[in-house]
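User: Predict the complex with NAP.
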Amino acid sequence: MKYRKLGRTNWNVSEIGYGMWGMGSWTGSDDAESLGSLQMAADMGCNFFDTAWAYGSGKSEGLLGKLVRANTDKKLYTATKIPPKNFQWPSRREYSLDDCFPPDHIQKFVEWSLRNAGLDSFDLLQFHTWEDNWLDDERGIMKMTDLKNQGLFHAIGISINRWEPWNGIRAVRSGFIDTVQVIYNIFDQNPKDELFPACREMNVGVIARVPFDEGTLTGNLTKDSKWPKGDWRNTYFVPENLNPSVDRADALKPLVPSGMTMPQMALRFILGEPTVSTIIPGMRKPAHVKSNLKTSDDGPLDHGLMKNLEKHRWDRKPNKWSQ
Ligand SMILES: NC(=O)c1ccc[n+]([C@@H]2O[C@H](COP(=O)([O-])OP(=O)(O)OC[C@H]3O[C@@H](n4cnc5c(N)ncnc54)[C@H](OP(=O)(O)O)[C@@H]3O)[C@@H](O)[C@H]2O)c1
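Assistant: Here is the predicted structure with NAP placed in the model:
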């Protein structure tokens, strides 16, 4: 495993980190299997773990706490997120700070997340939705800074809404935040346009999330894919999304070099972007952990394949199902 600096935090984080949404609330999760996968990742050198209160109302945070307590010999970086008070994803322009992150709500959820995890502090606390215009109401950032100064966490981040990399650039330039979490993958390359240059300029760490486009870029979805009742993917992969996503993933299949899998190609594409500090694939199965973590040693793709994959950029705009 190789490590990169997470911006101004100066933490050395593993190139492949760990996304913990699935194990909190997607159907088909098995806690014993999830814990085994987390431990395998820690043993293989993964040291950055991303969770949120919203991933099973604290369930995923509880699993992270267990992992940390079982590995007191290792430095594992813990990142969680405060849900918006109105529980609406994504945020919309008309939502105010009071709708989503009033100071008392921030305090309540930071304390709740710490209890869920059974930890005294987190390394990184992120806003789970974000509007750049909330910077005009300083109460949010002031509350976060106050709690950080109390030692409840050590760095402040934002998680940028799906397909809105522009809606975080002001926060990056404000100097208030240490990290951004943003969707970046073979399809969603637009953070490179303005967000990444701003992050480099301000030394803000970049966490690349959703490397497999929620599953499409594993190459395993078909136009008939369905999930058990209650799984959020049924509401995201509506035909309007699933059909073109599968077509575009199928167009990538002939490009996968022999000896490599499509998920590995997807991760190694992201490793080619030096602004990204850590990639956080969602994983619940040991086989996925093993295959994904190995990509750090294999390194970025060769120049020709990178250039070819850049042509598969897909610029999308938020809409009624995108969440
Ligand atoms: N708003 C936000 O802040 C936000 C939103 C979305 C995600 N996130 C964060 O980003 C993380 C990653 O995103 P995500 O989990 O939604 O989506 P993702 O990483 O794009 O895809 C996860 C899916 O890929 C599968 N997978 C992983 N490795 C695989 C492999 N080697 N071969 C085949 N399939 C593989 C997983 O299966 P298994 O689970 O069965 O292993 C899971 O179904 C989340 O876990 C969360 O921490 C944050």
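The first strand starts at residue 3 and ends at 5.
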